[in-house]
Amino acid sequence: MDEAVFTHASSSSPSIVVNYPLLSAFVAFAVAQSTKFFSLWFKERRCDLKQLINSGGMPSSHSATVTALAAAIGFQDGVGGSVFAIALVLACIVIYDATGVRLQAGRQAEVLNQIIYELPAEHPLAERIPLRELLGHTPMQVLVGGILGVIIAAIGYLIIVI
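^ Acid phosphatase/vanadium-dependent haloperoxidase-related protein, sequence as received from the core. Prediction below:
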């Protein structure tokens, strides 16, 4: 390959600090997770720091993150390029996984936990730590996360343009 291609790509690449799509994804994740944390605090008046990293719940931070990434790439580079195509396909896979596989795994965990709770105290499985039940997302949680991601990417783009 032409050496100029490698030189040009490396010299014009933005640093990670000013990488607008990456920052959009991180901000979307942080806002979605913070929303879960503050929602719990307002509803139940309790502080649960695990909400800042837990999966599941409203809004979907998975959807917010991948849609912010794809939207930011689309805003920055246009929607006709290969990088946008990759980001869009990644977003679709993550969203499908969040509403399909992970949601069903969470529902299975609920059933298994109920079975374990009903076991007699002397049963060897009765002392098991419960399985995590909140793993996936409902379609509404994914939709809100996706909208949040696009809004954050759009705000970031407006900040960069202005």
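The two ends are 38 Å apart (CA to CA).
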